[in-house]
Structures are given as C-alpha cells and as structure tokens.
Amino acid sequence: MARFFITGGGTGGHIYPAIAVADELQGDEIFYVGNPQNLEYQIVSQKGYKFLGVKIHGMPRKICLALFKWVFELLFATVKCCYYILKYKPQAVFGTGGYVSAPTLLACNILKVPYMLHDCDAQPGLVTRKFAPYAKCVSTAFESACDVLKNKNCHVNGNPIRSDFETLSKETAREKLGLQNKLTLCITGGSQGARSINDAVVEVLKDLSKDFDLQIIFQTGKKNFERVIEQLIKIYPEYEADKNLLIKPYFDNMVTVLKASDIAISRSGSLSISEICASGIAPVFVPYPHAAANHQRKNAEFVAGKNAGLYIEDSEISPKAIYEIISSLLANKERLEELQKNSLSLAKFDGAKKIVSQLRGII
C-alpha cells in the first residue's frame, strides 16, 4: 500500500478532479491537504478521506498590505505542510493547482518529495506554471497547455472525472432526482453560482416551462439562492406548483444532474466542460469574464470550434438571448442532436486511470 497526499481546492474545478484521482487510488492511503474553510473540506469529509487543514487564501494581484499579509500566511502554511510531510511521509503528492496547493508543493520542493501536477484549463494557472519545472510529471486537459509548461514529462490526459459519468443512464439519473423522463435543461454557474446567468434565466423560467413543456434543473449557488427566489416569486408566484422546475442552491451530486439533462447553460470552466461532454449534453457556455488569463473564453472557443457547443459573452446574456437560444435548439432537433453527439465525442473517460498510472510511476 502506497501513501499519497492530494491537494487542490477553492472551487469545484480543482476539487473534483482531485477526488476522481483519489477514488481511482483504491487500496492506497490518501490524505487530502486543503483549507478547512473551503468547499473541499465538505466534499472530502463526505468521501471519508483524511483531511489535513492549512489556512491559505488567494494571492492579491497587486502590491498592497494584503499581499504582505498573504506572504506570511503562505510561509506559515508551508511550515505546516512540511510538518504533515515529516509526520505522515507520503511517497508522492498529486496537486490540481490553485492557491490551496501552493504550500504543499513548496513543502515538497523543500523536503525533496516527488509530485505530479494536473491543470484543467487550456491556459494553465499560475501555480501550475510556477511549479511545473520541478514536478516529476504534469498532466493537462488540453494539448495547448503543454506548449506553455516547462516540463518534458507532460501528458494530455483530459480531466479526471468520476466513473458514474460512464455508467449512469439518463433514465436512472432522472428517477434519482424525482423527475419525469423528458427533455431537460440544466442551468448552473458552477459551485459558486453565477449572478448574470441567474438574473437572465429567472425571467424566462416560466416561459420555457409553459411554452415548451421543458423540464429545468437550476443550481443557483448558495449565495444567490434567496435572491433568485425573491425574483421568481415576483415573476411567477405559483412556481412551486410547476413540476417542470427543480431549483436548489447546490447539488451534492452533479453527476446525476448532468446525466439527467439534454441541454446545459453553464460557465466554461474546464471541469464543467469535461463533465458536460461526458454527459452528451448540448452546451451553451457563458464564460466568466474575470477568469485568470481569460481561460474560460479560451475553453469555450475550443469546444465551439469543434462544433460541440455554443457560447455567448457574459455581457450579452439577457432573458431574450437565453429564450432565443433555447427555443432555436428545441425547434431544430437535428442541430440539438449534432451538438450532443459532438460533445460526447470530446469526452475522455480514462483520464483518472492514466493519471494514477503516471502518479505511481514517479514513486
């Protein structure tokens, strides 16, 4: 039995690939290093993996007092990670990038512990770019990412996704959610929600349900749920009686939600794209305009270039735009099926297996 540290967090895009790799490391001992104040703590606890907490937040991108405070926070977090490594003696570390993984990777460099990185995006993040030269192996979701990473042992594996994406049927997924077996739209801004998407969609929920008998799963994000419901009550007071609507702040199992769906309106984080493609969904992407290095737009452009999805700029999203896009897809069955087929063709179901094989190889 080998012992591994896995680190990465802050958003689902860093957490879920790490969890998929942890699940694939069956029979090995796993410790997850993350911020106990973040989403990773909740998800890792539910999975039953041992959690090692470090206090670290995102780095301020300009010189200010907060930046100096962050440097001290990083130093303390790195010392704590050194302690964890010396105490538990992992044979290797797997990191999925983001600020949460930085102190663990720094500790690995100090204590000469081998590590492997995975980056989800077409434009790799800051942590991946800085630590890639010292990693024994690097995994990416996009071929273009390898071109900018200074590591000769770079592999295009796709994003590691949970095995249920390959095995769960659409009918079973709908049954688990208590939904009817009919055409379904998923709306999600990711684990944090997306206010611009929510504000546009809430205006047309009633019309989409009534005009097309369309079943709608709407994840608002925890911070936005009350705002959405307040808006919806004004527009559609009887919404709770509409069996076509399933509205929640957050779904613990997005595999079931996506596998139940035919169309999705979503941000274009790389993991979201991988999971949508693995579900054979026709996607409509709304890239987050403030994403680092504009990576969400690059992700969306990649999929659109493969004729596997549509995308609309965040500044252009409106109730009218949403209604017109969805109604045009519903009116053109051939186009809808083409997008679904092309989307599924981009899916890579063996990413976790490939990564685990490469990770074992650095021990």
Structure write-up:
- The protein has helices at residues 12-24, 39-47, 65-88, 102-111, 126-131, 143-146, 164-167, 170-176, 195-202, 205-212, 225-235, 254-259, 270-278, 295-305, 319-331, 333-345, 351-361, and strands spanning 3-7, 29-34, 50-53, 92-95, 115-119, 137-140, 154-156, 184-188, 215-219, 245-248, 263-266, 282-285, 310-311.
- The protein is an alpha/beta fold and 363 residues long.
- It folds into two domains: 3-159 and 349-361, Rossmann fold (3-Layer(aba) Sandwich); 164-345, Glycogen Phosphorylase B (Rossmann fold).
- The strands form two sheets. Strands 3-2-1-4-5-6-7 form a seven-stranded parallel sheet, sandwiched between helices. A six-stranded parallel sheet has the order 10-9-8-11-12-13, sandwiched between helices.
- Strand 4, helix 4 (102-111) and strand 5 form a beta-alpha-beta unit.
- Helix 1 packs across helix 17 (351-361) and helix 9 (195-202) crosses helix 15 (319-331).
- It is globular and about 60 Å long.
